[in-house]
């Protein structure tokens, strides 16, 4: 029996950023999946969201294209950004003084809503659009409004969620000739070891 506490746990920032990345796994956007996680001063998650079309606007009917001769046939006029969805999904009265963990630096439209909802800090992973006007404008507004933004530099490139680690024996009891699932693999024991990686950044 182990008598000392585990030391190799993930820290708070990894935990909340990983939640943002897990939420992104729900996005139907074929090119860019973004997740956001809002945390209050007591380190409680109060909102989580990912980019997608508004309720009632079908993922199958609205366009996912990035380019078209007709702007109405691109996703940009319809998609709700992860940051906005996380704020709208809040399970608290407000998100005042909260921190938002987000995979990509917020655009100017999200920055306005982040400021107006009184979020105090943004922790982001990628700043790949730093040179674009929407990012420059977002930073200008954050600076003016006193919203801090910090780039998160991960200690590990991957955090793996392994569903088998809690109860391998019961998972091991599978039919003699299991079917290979799409995007999955079978290990020597015939168990589906399809992997969900949390570092699929785009
Ligand atoms: N901070 C951000 C940046 C982007 N998004 C969403 C909006 C779109 O669904 C997609 C960007 O499309 P791309 O031009 O990269 O294919 O990501 C967001 O939710 N939050
Ligand atoms: Zn945005």
Automatic annotation (TrEMBL):
Domain CMP/dCMP-type deaminase: 11-149
Gene Ontology BP terms: nucleotide biosynthetic process
Enzyme Commission identifier(s): 3.5.4.12
Top-rank taxon: Eukaryota
Cofactor(s) essential for the protein: Zn(2+)
Keywords: Hydrolase, Metal-binding, Nucleotide biosynthesis, Zinc
InterPro entries: APOBEC/CMP_deaminase_Zn-bd, CMP_dCMP_dom, Cytidine_deaminase-like, dCMP_deaminase-rel, Deoxycytidylate_deaminase_dom
One Pfam match: dCMP_cyt_deam_1
Broadest EC class assigned to this enzyme: hydrolase
Reported function: Supplies the nucleotide substrate for thymidylate synthetase.
Protein name listed in UniProt: Probable deoxycytidylate deaminase
Lineage of the organism: Eukaryota, Metazoa, Ecdysozoa, Arthropoda, Hexapoda
């Amino acid at each position: 029996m182990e008598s000392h506490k585990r030391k190799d746990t993930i820290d708070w920032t990894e935990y909340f950023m990983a939640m943002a990345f897990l939420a992104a796994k729900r996005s139907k956007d074929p090119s860019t999946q973004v997740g956001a996680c809002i945390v209050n001063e007591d380190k409680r998650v109060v909102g989580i969201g990912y980019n997608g079309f508004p309720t009632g606007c079908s993922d199958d009917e609205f366009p996912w294209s990035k380019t078209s001769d007709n702007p109405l046939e691109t996703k940009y006029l319809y998609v709700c950004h992860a940051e906005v969805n996380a704020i709208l999904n809040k399970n608290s009265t407000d998100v005042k003084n909260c921190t938002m963990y987000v995979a990509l630096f917020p655009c100017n439209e999200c920055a306005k809503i982040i400021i107006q909802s009184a979020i105090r800090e943004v922790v982001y992973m990628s700043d790949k659009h730093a040179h674009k006007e929407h990012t420059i404008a977002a930073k200008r507004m954050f600076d003016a409004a006193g919203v801090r933004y910090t780039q998160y530099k991960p200690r590990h490139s991957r955090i793996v969620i392994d569903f088998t680690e809690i109860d391998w024996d019961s998972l091991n009891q599978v039919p003699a000739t299991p079917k290979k699932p799409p995007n999955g693999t079978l290990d020597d024991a015939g168990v589906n070891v399809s992997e969900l990686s949390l570092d699929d950044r785009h």
